[in-house]
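Internal QA ticket QA-208
Title: Verify multi-chain structure generation after dependency bump
Assignee: T.L.

Test input:
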Amino acid sequence: MGVFRKEAVIRLAELEAQLVFESIFGDHYEAVLAYAIRRTPQRVDAQEAVAETMTIAWQRRELLCAHDNPRIWLYATTKRVLANHRRGASRRTALSNKLVEHQCTDGPIPDTIIDLDNDEAIISQALEMLSDRDQELIRLDVFEGLSHAEIAEVLDCREAQVRSRLYRARACLRQAYEDQGGDHSRTSDGKRS
Amino acid sequence: MAVALRRLARLLGLGDRGDHLVDDNDLFDVLRRADPAARPPLPDVSHPDAQQLLTRILQTPRTVVSPKKRPRRRWFVLIALVGVTTGATWVVIHRSSVSDSRNVACYRDLSLNSDIVVVPFDLGNPLEACRQAWESGELQNRKVTPAGSEPPLTRCVLPSGLLGIFPSDDVDLCARLGLDAAAPAGFRPSAPWLAGRAGRGAGL
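Actual output:
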């Protein structure tokens, strides 16, 4: 009887955890997917990263549920997952580059050329010119709309550091944008306001 | 127009440090319009892909995820453990053993200020060395025992490291005198010391 009761309690706890996880998944899936898409060139890669993040979240659901703001926990986890993917990809790229060197003489394939007439393309390019750390700060601030304290938690640093780094990152972005000939007075269709 | 003028002023070197062509709000508006997640719109959680993912995750058996071990922390724990062990060993050794292993101090009374006879001893039980001092009458104390007879003896470690033998069977005597009790087994000379003694012909 005691054994059955113990099993029932465990089962109940599992069901409760499942319900909580489903709720968190529903609330944050879209935000986490957006986070990943903003940091990976391919949507397929972003979806893979989200799947991995959510699996980790399920495995560590006690940590996730105990967190005051699960979205921050999920962003921080996705950041680590993407970093792992990038490390793997760079290893693969290095290997394939070695193979290419032996196979062709035309040199590496050029990067995709962005239409610089478009202000949005210019700002995207300006953002890419910043350091990885500055890009992440700007994205967390502008796209994810996090507070300084939340950014500090995702990046695992102090809030005061976020404030000063973000100030510098904004200045760098503005400079890079202006250097690229960006003009904010144009509307999204390319016409000047 | 304002932007063009500011750009011109900047080219002519007339702009100051804070005079930017673009202010942050406008810049971030442009950046938001360039959000890669906005075009095309993201699938929401009701999308079949999201639902399939959720089902797949919930069917995943739970694996025990052990926290990542940090080598630095492991080293720190190891060093701390070695330090604590060494310290504890030192304390134990110094609490209950004798550093001067060639002589024993036989006290006449239950006080550190009483007369003593320092007796060299070679091997075996240090109590025996003091017992002989009592038996021979070298040590006498009528309050403790009649002349020529041996009293019960208790071993303590003196602050100097010498073994002190007191005429008492009180097990708390060492503590009352502010001394550590000697190891129950008594003094056991180490092998190198014994070798040294043998080499010198045990002539102390």
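Spot checks passed. The first helix of chain B runs from residue 2 to 11.
Status: verified.
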